[in-house]
Amino acid sequence: MLQTAPQILSNEEMPAAEVLTPLGTGPVVLACEHASPAIPKSLSNLGLRDADRLSHAAWDPGALALAKAMSEQLHAPLVASRVSRLVYDCNRPPEADSAMPRLSEVVEVPGNRDLTQEQRDARTREVYEPFRTTLATVMDRHGGALVTIHSFTPLWHGKPRATEIGLLHDSDSRLADSMIANWSGALKAELNAPYSASDGVTHTLALHALPRQRLNVMIEVRNDLIETEAQVAEVAEQLCCVLSRAMGQMATQRHAEGSA
Length: 260
Known about the structure:
Layout: E1 17-20, E2 28-32, H1 50-53, H2 63-74, E3 78-81, E4 103-104, E5 107-108, H3 117-141, E6 145-152, E7 155-156, E8 159-160, E9 165-168, H4 174-181, E10 189-191, H5 203-209, E11 216-222, H6 229-259
Parallel strand pairs: 2-3, 2-6, 6-11, 9-10
Antiparallel strand pairs: 1-3, 4-5, 7-8, 9-11
Helix pairs in contact: 2-6, 4-6
């Protein structure tokens, strides 16, 4: 009899991905790949120190709250992972070492050392595939653009980051460029900062938006700017206004070109 790998997530810890505002009809689909610091009990906290289990290494602090606020304002469906990115980073393909990192900045992850292929396959099957298929289903049902929501730490290897909001793109820069052109508000935005596609961070965009020829953008917000409910509300309003303005302008341009 064939033996299967032990189940990582208990029934109580499932599903690995959830859809919020599932009937949303707004202009976008939102995704939050690093929404949760939750580590399945079966993995014994991956051997992490207590201080690291809730650090930015384990998730994107504030990102889910921001994504929820934007989902409400835009009446848009939101697909969110419910498992820590240290178990599996849903913004990475299975073959990438960073999908199950042994080191995140200065945080060592003992539970990710010397993983067997069977163990990697189990995490891919139980964490990545549910997120991937859930987002694909929502994208196929909904005709909107794909917007992924992330946060980043103000300090990286001890060095401060001046970037406040980053707008990242893969090979399709249309929405990111339009948002920059229409940018307004208290916070400043930069293109492809503090990361870019060359850092391997646009996997979700490349997998789900590009083949469907959908507009897309990855939004990165410095996490000290979304620590409180008031901050989240303010940033969400600014992002939704700019996003709506940019998409409206692009729609007007396409209509004008089609009528020419």
